[in-house]
Amino acid sequence: MNENRREFIRKTGLGVLAGLGVASGIFPKSSFETAVASTTHENSSSGTRWGMVIDTRKCKEGCTKCIDACHEVHNVPQFDNAKDEIKWIWKSPYENVFPGESGQFVSEETRERSYLALCNHCDNPPCVRACPTQATFKRSWDGIVAMDYHRCIGCRFCMAACPYGARSFNWRDPRPAIQKRSQAYPTRERGVVEKCNFCSERLAQGLKPACVAECPEGALTFGDLNDSQSEVRMLLEKNHTLQRKSELGTRPSVFYII
Amino acid sequence: MIEKALKGDRIYWGWIVLLLVIISAGVFSYINQLTTGLTLTGMGRDVSWGVYIAQFTFLVGVAASAVMVVLPYYLHDYKAFGKIVIIGEFLAVAATIMCVLFILVDLGRPDRVLNVLLYPTPHSMLFWDATVLNGYLLLNIVSGWTVLGAERKGVPPPKWVKPVIYLSIPWAFSIHTVTAFLYAGLPGRHLWLTAVLAPRFLASAFAAGPAILILVSYILKKTTGFDAGKQAINKLSVIVTYAAILNFFLLGMEFFTAFYSNIPGHMHGLQYLFFGLHGEGQLVPWMWLSVIVGFGSLLVLLIPKLRTSSPWLIAACIGIVVSIWIDKGVGLIIGGFVPSPLEEIVGYIPNLNEIIITIGVWAIGILILTLLLKVAVAVKAQDQA
Ligand code: SF4
Ligand code: SF4
C-alpha cells in the first residue's frame, strides 16, 4: 500500500512538487509517506522524544503545586488581568481542555474535575511551521519545542498557529510582576512570546521537570516516548489515553489518562 | 519630477498639513506603545491579533487590485484605462506601504524585524508574505514612476519596463493568495481553515480596490479637474459588480458548508460573528451592517441606470468599501480567534492608543497617495497643454 502510493505519487509527477514542499519544510515528510492517517503514526522521530503522561484521576482538585513550581522556577510574571496573562501550565475544565471529545452524558465526576493544560511539545508542531525566524524550533535530539527569546520578533504568528492556547505574549514588561526572582532561568523582555519548555534547563542537569518533581500525588510521569521500556510507555500500554485534539495531526507528546 | 508635488494651492497645502497633524498624533501614540508595550492595545492572550493585522489584510487586497486596471490596459491594450492605470499603480504603492507599516506596528520587537531576512524560513508563510509584498512594492514603484517619467519627457517608456509590468500581474495575485495562506493553513482556527479563503480574498479585493479607485477618480476630478474618463469608470464599476457578486457567493458557501455539515467547530466562528455565541456577540451589529450595506450597494450596481449615474455609483462604491472593510478588516481576523482554542469567548475592543496609531498609518498612506497623484496629475496636465 505504502509502496504503491509512493509509486503513484512519483509517476504523476506530483513527487517533484511534494519534494520541493517537503524540502522547504512546508509539508511534513510524513504527510506523503504514510498511507495511514499521520495521527496514528508512531516513532516518527528517532532518538529521544520527551513526553508526559498525566493521570488526571490522581490530580487533586484545588491543588496548584505543579503550576506554582513551574511559574516560580521560570520567572513567569503574575498579572491580575486576563489580557496580559502569561501562563505555562494551568488548569481548565474538561470541555475546555478537550473540546470535541465526547461531551454527551459525560460522568459528573469527569466533568467536574479540572485538567492540566500545557504545551504539548507536538511532534508535528504548527507553531514551528508558522514562525518566520525559527525563534520557535523543534530540537532534533529530544523533540522539545524550544524558543529563542533573543530572536523572536513578537509577530505572534505562533500564537495563532497553536491549537492549544499554549503560548503567551509579553504585552508589558514582565519583570516588575515576578514575585520571587529565580536564578535558575532567565527572565524575558517585553515583546516576545513564551511557553512551557519541558524544563529543558533542568533536564540538562539530569533533573525531572519541576511540575513532575513537585506533584505530591505522582500524577505526572515524564520520559522518553521512543523508548519502549520507559515508564511513560508502560503507562500508555496499560491505560487508555487521550491526546488533545489528536485529529489535527499535531501528534502531541502529552497524554491524559481520564 | 518630485518637485511637482511642491506646487499647490491653499486647499492642497491645508490637506497636507491636516494629514501631517494626524500622522504626528499617530507617531506620538506609537512612541507610547514602544515604551509601554502592546498592552496599550485591546489585544490579549486569546485575541492576539487585532485591528492592525486586520487593516493589513484589507490593504493587501487594495494593493493587489491595481491589477484590475494594469491587466486590461497592458495585456489587452484596453485604451480606456490609459489615464487611470497610473492611479491604480500609485494606489497600490500607498496601500503596500501601509501594509508594511501595519505589520511593523504590530510587532513586539520591531527592532528585530530583519531577523525575517537574516534567518529565511521557507516553511513560514510570513516569510513568503514579506518577500512578495516588498517585491510588489518595488515592481509598482519602478513601473509607475518610469512610465510617468517617460510621459513627462514626451518619449515612449523604455522597453525594459514592459516585462516588469507583466511580472507585476501574476505578482498581484500572489500577494493576496499568500496573505490568505497566513490564515488558511493553521490547524484549529476553523473560520480560516477553508480552501475558499484565498479566492474570497481575491474577490473582495477586486470589489473593494476598484471601488476605491472610482472614488479616488471622483475626488481627483473634483479637486484637480483630472478626468479619468467616463468609459474607464463604467468599466471599473462593472468589475466591482462582478467581484462583489463573487464575494457574496463565496461567503454563502462558507455558511452552507458550516451549517449544513453542522460541525460545531465550523459553525462557531460564523455563529459568533453573525448571531452571537453563548450570549456574546459584540460584532453582530457590525457584521449585519456589512451584509446589509453590501447587498444594498450590490443592488444599486446591478441596475445599469443607477450604476452609470455618478451620485448612485459613488454611494454604492462607498457601501462596497465599508461592507468589505468590516468583513475583512474587523470580522475575519477577530472572528478567527473567537472562540479560543479552549473554546472560551474573549472579546476584543481596540483601545484609543491603538486606534490613533491605526488612523496615523492610514494618514501616512493617504499622504503618500496624495503626493504621488499630485505628480501624476501635473504630468498628465502638461501633456494636454
Ligand atoms: S502545544 Fe502549541 S506551542 Fe506547544 S508545540 Fe504544540 S503547537 Fe507548539
Ligand atoms: S512571535 Fe516570535 S516565536 Fe512566535 S512566530 Fe513570531 S518570531 Fe516566532
Descriptive account of the structure:
The complex is a heterodimer of chains A (258) and B (385). Chain A is of the alpha+beta class and 258 residues long. Chain A has two domains: 1-33; 48-257, Alpha-Beta Plaits. Chain A has helices at residues 2-11, 14-24, 30-33, 65-73, 94-97, 108-112, 126-130, 157-161, 200-203, 210-214, 231-238; strands at 50-55, 89-93, 114-118, 136-138, 145-147, 168-169, 193-194, 220-224, 241-242, 254-257. In chain A, a hairpin with a 6-residue loop joins β4 (136-138) and β5 (145-147). Chain A starts with a helix and ends with a strand. Chain B has 385 residues and is mainly α. Chain B has a single domain, classed as Formate dehydrogenase/DMSO reductase fold, CATH 1.20.1630.10. Chain B is built from 14 helices and no strands. Chain B has helices at 10-36, 51-64, 67-75, 85-106, 115-118, 125-153, 161-184, 197-224, 230-261, 264-274, 284-302, 304-307, 310-336, 352-384. In chain B, α3 (67-75) packs antiparallel against α7. Chain B is globular. The two termini of chain B are 17 Å apart. The relative contact order of chain B is 0.17. The model of chain B has no long low-confidence stretch (mean pLDDT 94). Chains A and B meet through α5, α7, α8 and β6 of A and α5 and α6 of B.
| Approximate shape of chain B | globular
Helicity range of chain B? over 70%
Which percent range fits the helix content of chain A?
Answer: 25-40%
Q: Can you tell me the CATH topology of the largest domain in chain A?
A: Alpha-Beta Plaits
Terminal residue distance of chain B: 17 Å
CATH class category label of chain B? Mainly Alpha
Rg of chain A, rounded, reads 19 Å
Radius of gyration of chain B: 21 Å
Number of helices of chain A: 11
The top-level CATH class of the largest domain in chain A is Alpha Beta
Low-pLDDT residue spans of chain A: 35-40
**Main sheet summary of chain B:** none
